[in-house]
Write a structure and sequence with these properties.
The complex is a heterodimer of chains A (122) and B (326). With 122 residues, chain A is mainly α. Chain A has a single domain, classed as Orthogonal Bundle (Helix Hairpins), CATH 1.10.287. Helix content of chain A is 66%, strand content 0%. Chain A contains 4 helices and no strands. In chain A, helix 1 packs antiparallel against helix 2 (26-48). The longest helix of chain A has 32 residues, at 78-109. Chain B is mostly helical and 326 residues long. Chain B has a domain at 49-110 and 165-298. Helix content of chain B is 59%, strand content 0%. Chain B contains 12 helices and no strands. In chain B, helix 3 (67-75) crosses helix 11. The radius of gyration of chain B is 26 Å and the shape is globular. The chains are: A mainly alpha (122), B mainly alpha (326). At the A-B interface, helix 1, helix 2, helix 3 and helix 4 of A face helix 1, helix 2, helix 3, helix 4 and helix 11 of B.
Amino acid sequence: MIVVNYLASVTLLCIGLYAVLTKRNLLKIVMGLSLMESSTYLFLLSLAYRAGSTAPVLLGPPHGESPSALAHGDVADPVLQNICLTAIVIGVAVTGVFLAVTVRIVQHYRTLDADRVRELRG
Amino acid sequence: MRQRPERGALVEREPTHRRGVGALVVLALGVVLGLTVWHLPREHAPLSRVAREALVVALPGWHTLEPVNEVVYGTRGFDTFGETFLLLAAVVGIGLIARTREQRGEFLGEELAAAREQHAELASSDDAGPEVRARAAEAGEQGRGRGPATPDAEPLGRAWPERSRAMTVVVRAGVRVLAPLLTICGCYLFAWGYSPGGGFPGGAVLVGIVLLAYVSLGYRRVQRVIRPAPVEVAELLGALLVVAVELGGLIFKGSFSASFLPLGQVQTIPSGGVLQAFSASEVIEVATGLTLAIFGLLGMAHDWAPPAEHRDEGSSRAPEEGRAPS
């Protein structure tokens, strides 16, 4: 029932989005964005899963089989695992930028409350 | 003058923003996405053609037993190239945001840049006691205060607890044992690229070692190695190596990110050819990039200037009043 994983990742994404939309604490908004990123990792890895499959590694095939036979066998999706790897790196980088901006906002405005940061309001 | 809301006041309930509308939007999105994922292929669906192709081509085409690495550095090499520069852009962005106006040789110590003005400001303030104590504690944690030069110089078996700028001797000894093992682990992950691993996990492990050393031994012990200048140069060298490896394909094989290095024997370190070269450059890029990002963030100490309204209203209010409610 991998669809449970899909639904769990949708739920995670919704919790994260709810935090981004309704919280006023900038750190909690960044946490919400991180949660949304994490939900995509769960989603991609669940999408890569195949029932009864092994890892997409051609090392150590079962007795009497060649590694190339393993390539045609039942394995998890390597492309989606790779996309998840990409997503993780980008997620880390983006979270870092968000946090740096948050720290500077706090230093400048002396508040974490997003509603009080309104000097740009025209 | 317009009445300002009390900024430092304790808030009983956490301030939120249009919870009803937010819940409605999120619920609608959840329903739409839920219906969408319900119809996605599930665990019994056959693998996509791209995935099958990657699995089949990995061994004969790239001499690697690791299809994920083959996809990362081979088939989707151009995408990884873009991702590398996204990471570099983010690191440069953090560097720009975190950087102070003046040149500094170290990551931490932003607040030292204006130490003289800071002391003058504090001396003229009426209620500087808590501020002075907080700064002394902060300096002690960073190893700049009184006490021995390094946590290891502090004798064991005293009645009082060890200072907080480094962790206890148990953790320090543990990290000293673990760090070489973890370094080997991280290098193994990318060097033996035909087994699961690769540049990204390897780089992340190396960053983990730097952070372990920083957290357990204190900044002063990693200060000599973790300085902006060498780490930034290494980061850019990694990026240049990635460009060189990818351009090599264009020059020698006529297509960007094509495999131009000879493929070694299967299950040896040079087996993947260009995959391994890309992976090794990626280790440098990821390890130094994340180190720069993390230490850039850690170095953003609180600025010392009092808030603007205090300057306007004179020194009648205590400096703590305007601090951020967090």
